[in-house]
Amino acid sequence: MTIRINEQTSEGKKLAAFLKTQPYIEILDEPNAITRKAMKDVDAGKVKKAKNPEDLFQQILGK
């Protein structure tokens, strides 16, 4: 079973806090697919290094 709780809302924050206090509930904070791919890219060395934001944008946009 998977339950998604929007912790951006006050109700979601309260529900998540309550659930975390329950000994029979296990909370798994796993990264989503986009984050997992980004982590694999970092491990594979597929990253850009820049001196500053302008340098990064130049590399990305090629300007």
Task: List the keywords.
0% strand; mainly alpha; 63 residues; 2 domains
Alpha-beta classification: mainly alpha
Largest sheet: none
Q: Provide the residue-averaged pLDDT.
A: 91
Net shape:
elongated
* Number of H/I helices: 3
Helix and strand element order: HHH
Give the CA-CA distance, first to last residue: 48 Å
Overall structural domain count: 2
Q: In what range is the share of β-strand residues?
A: under 5%
DSSP strand tally: 0
Report Rg: 19 Å
Q: Identify the quaternary structure here.
A: single chain
Helix fraction bin: 40-55%
Residue stretches low in confidence (pLDDT < 50, at least 5 long) are: none
Task: Describe, in plain words, how this protein is organized in 3D.
- The chain is mostly helical and 63 residues long.
- It folds into 2 domains: 1-30, no CATH class; 32-63, no CATH class.
- It is 49% helix and 0% strand.
- It has 3 helices and no strands.
- It has helices at 10-20, 33-43, 53-61.
- The protein is elongated.
Summarize the structure.
The chain contains three helices and no strands.
Which secondary structure elements does this structure contain, and how are they paired or packed?
Layout: H1 10-20, H2 33-43, H3 53-61
